[in-house]
């Protein structure tokens, strides 16, 4: 349908529970009603849902369990099924089918798995099915977890090629200070640039119910807006919040999409955590930032971490500041051997070569 948009709605645990120990079904059905209204108007809706552990605790009658990762994964395994049943029941009121997708960061960091997840997600949307997505907490280890559903929702927005991302939480948006401790704090209605001052404002405000505070929402907004997605942080209990956001009415804090978003083939680079660091000299830094050059071995001063070729690594200046992320064409051991040398020497030093550049400009995103 002309004018239709793709919206990702992320619902935090505090929104789903209303601050209690139980899922607030009356409130969730109201959120579903708003989504169903947009769906009926031709828009494509994706739900990123928290609450599996809370649902598991409720389903099992709030058992006393040891404070271990295994206990949390047990609760997630139990709660995920009851949580998805709830979403299915509520959307079925409006005759809408849902499809469950459980993702981890590992699904984002491998390009083939990224593309497979993207194809599945888009197939659901093309068939008017609402994807309901959560992190696969029952099996995910710390190494492959995204860690919070704010950042997961930003990656999902990239997967879905979404127009808008709505992060629903228990406060009305980003304030100049934590409004729970500073009554004179003011709501920041619009953000055009995310900088260190703004990150400082976000602080560590957290409700205590979920894993993400305002700082993770800022991270998510930065990732999604760089990829061309409008992001809004708003209160989940605000009447009509989802429809108002889609209508571009003043709601919460809006982060504007960058006008020149990353091309699609580079967006998956946001998914993986860097496998290592490459420190470059000032000449290489200037070439990358000002001339749009690829990274050559000659400009490498140091390599940190052990990684294989084809993974995402971080490029840093001599001052330690992040410059870019990119896919390395050589593993860490090979890079240490060719660092500081000219490209034509690669074959003589290693006995093989994968081309003259370490990270090609097409496989790099600049920070």
UniProtKB/TrEMBL annotation:
For biological process, the GO terms are: L-proline biosynthetic process
According to its UniProt entry, this protein's organism is: Sodalis ligni
In this protein, which residues make up the domain named PUA? 276-359
Select a single GO molecular function from the record's annotations and give it: RNA binding
Which pathway or pathways does this protein act in? Amino-acid biosynthesis; L-proline biosynthesis; L-glutamate 5-semialdehyde from L-glutamate: step 1/2
Tell me the InterPro entries matching this sequence.
AceGlu_kinase-like_sf (IPR036393), Asp/Glu/Uridylate_kinase (IPR001048), G5K_ProB (IPR041739), Glu/AcGlu_kinase (IPR001057), Glu_5kinase (IPR011529), Glu_5kinase/COase_Synthase (IPR005715), Glutamate_5-kinase_CS (IPR019797), PUA (IPR002478)
So where does this one cross the membrane? none
What domain of life?
Bacteria
Q: Which PROSITE patterns match?
A: GLUTAMATE_5_KINASE (PS00902), PUA (PS50890)
EC number(s) from the headed UniProt entry: 2.7.2.11
Does the entry feature the keyword Methyltransferase, yes or no?
Answer: no
- The gene designation is proB
Name of a matching Pfam family = PUA
Sorted alphabetically, the keyword list is:
Amino-acid biosynthesis, ATP-binding, Cytoplasm, Kinase, Nucleotide-binding, Proline biosynthesis, Transferase
Q: Where does this protein reside within or beyond the cell?
A: Cytoplasm
**Annotated function:** Catalyzes the transfer of a phosphate group to glutamate to form L-glutamate 5-phosphate.
Where does this protein hold substrate? Answer: 50, 137, 149
Catalytic activity as recorded in UniProt: L-glutamate + ATP = L-glutamyl 5-phosphate + ADP
For the ligand (ATP), the binding residues are: 10, 169-170, 211-217
Q: Which GO terms describe its cellular component?
A: cytosol
What family classification does the UniProt entry report for this protein?
Belongs to the glutamate 5-kinase family.
**What protein name applies here?**
Glutamate 5-kinase
Signal as a keyword of this entry, yes or no, is no
